[in-house]
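> call design_seq(struct)
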């Protein structure tokens, strides 16, 4: 069997932290706070945790099993495991989904890149600064947003051109723990602001009267978005993994890290939001307004803000690396095409595809798709339709097509889990996961 031994993770910790880096990016740090703010606070967080543990975690295990079982990138993996069938559509679905996701994800990555540069040069935290105005200035400037988009994509192309083996893994071992440390520092400061308790209650005290069928769909989509499941990116990542690593335990570690980071993000953001009279439902710009406000109240705030933004930038990059990797590997798997050439071409295409989303706050602000800007419409399509659809297809593939013996072998390889754990996971994938996705989706359409 042809595999990818030339590009293996060197340690279990490296794989877990790199997978967490692929998952813990914009989903947990940027998107989670504003989605929570727009959908009722604590009740949304409760649903997010529930969906992450009961739906997202089993799917993450499934993607790990598919990838290591086939030891191929996503498109080739499904072809190998189900030859002469139409199941390879799942891998192709992931490639298309990752492309669309990158078209708006890299726009936000560009914002973070711009903020990082401004912070390092001491241009963000100033006396009487209006951080809402600063965010508006950046996002409403076509030149600034397009430069940020281009710069973010250049970094992605350079890294993916040289593969993902040692650079991402080594950096993840250092920078992911530092991200946790800096989040804890922000949380400690945020909860000491006057009026912070109101924000903590908003975030942690569920009010289920605020929950609608639409917010349930958003919570499900958020769990998929923040775990990076549904587009088979983790299939590609796990294809580089040795047999001595426990896939269920690795998936559980990634899921737990994701929940903890989301918790820290909420505790860092909402106390500040309420303390300074901001609106929880501010939208995508919430993080960029709150973080500078919090750091401005600390000694050496500009230094800490710069360090955090750089770490945040890395977390976003590790996520985008996984997306660009699945697209690049799909075009380089069979034929020995140049990774540099393919990654560069894809980067250029993504740049042009991302222009409408990057101009959604300026020249294309009046262009609406079902009442949403191009940025928001693409986000909705990816997070609430394509990601759940991909997860549903993966659940069906696991349930009815993939060899049960191979699944069981991969499930128990590298661990000593009780023999009854595999049947529990399999039944979750066969019944609970697809039923939940279908019911939540139909409920959002008002059908059930």
């Amino acid at each position: 069997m042809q595999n990818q031994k030339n590009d293996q993770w060197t340690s279990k910790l490296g794989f877990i932290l790199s997978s967490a880096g692929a998952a813990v990016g914009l989903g947990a740090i940027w998107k989670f706070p504003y989605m929570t703010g727009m959908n009722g606070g604590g009740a949304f967080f409760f649903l997010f945790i529930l969906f992450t543990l009961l739906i997202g975690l089993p799917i993450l295990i499934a993607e790990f099993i598919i990838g290591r079982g086939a030891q191929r990138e996503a498109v080739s993996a499904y072809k190998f495991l189900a030859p002469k069938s139409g199941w390879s559509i799942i891998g192709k679905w992931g490639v298309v989904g990752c492309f669309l996701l990158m078209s708006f994800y890299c726009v936000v990555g560009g914002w973070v890149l711009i903020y990082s540069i401004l912070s390092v040069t001491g241009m963000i935290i100033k006396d009487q600064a209006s951080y809402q105005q600063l965010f508006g200035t950046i996002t409403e400037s076509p030149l600034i947003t397009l430069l940020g988009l281009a710069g973010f994509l250049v970094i992605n192309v350079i890294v993916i051109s040289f593969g993902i083996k040692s650079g991402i893994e080594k950096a993840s071992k250092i920078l992911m723990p530092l991200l946790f440390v800096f989040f804890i520092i922000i949380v400690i400061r945020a909860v000491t602001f006057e009026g912070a308790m109101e924000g903590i209650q908003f975030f942690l005290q569920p009010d289920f009267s605020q929950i609608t069928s639409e917010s349930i769909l958003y919570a499900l989509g958020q769990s998929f978005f923040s775990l990076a499941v549904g587009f088979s990116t983790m299939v590609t990542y796990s294809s580089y993994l040795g047999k001595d690593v426990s896939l269920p335990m690795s998936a559980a570690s990634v899921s737990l890290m994701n929940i903890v980071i989301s918790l820290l993000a909420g505790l860092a953001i909402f106390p500040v939001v309420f303390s300074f009279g901001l609106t929880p439902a501010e939208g995508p710009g919430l993080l960029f307004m709150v973080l500078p406000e919090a750091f401005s109240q600390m000694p050496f705030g500009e230094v800490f803000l710069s360090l955090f933004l750089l770490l945040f930038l890395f977390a976003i990059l590790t996520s985008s690396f996984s997306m660009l990797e699945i697209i690049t590997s799909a075009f380089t798997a069979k034929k020995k095409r140049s990774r540099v050439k393919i990654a560069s071409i894809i980067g250029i295409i993504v740049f042009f595809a991302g222009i409408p989303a990057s101009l959604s706050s300026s020249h294309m602000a009046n262009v609406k798709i079902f009442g949403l800007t191009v940025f928001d419409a693409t986000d909705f399509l990816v997070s609430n339709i394509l990601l759940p659809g991909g997860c549903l297809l993966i659940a069906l593939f696991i349930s009815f097509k993939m060899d049960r013996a191979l699944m069981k072998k991969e499930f128990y390889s590298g661990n000593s889990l009780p023999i009854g754990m595999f049947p529990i996971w399999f039944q979750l994938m066969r019944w609970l996961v697809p039923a939940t996705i279908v019911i939540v989706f139909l409920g959002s359409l008002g059908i059930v």
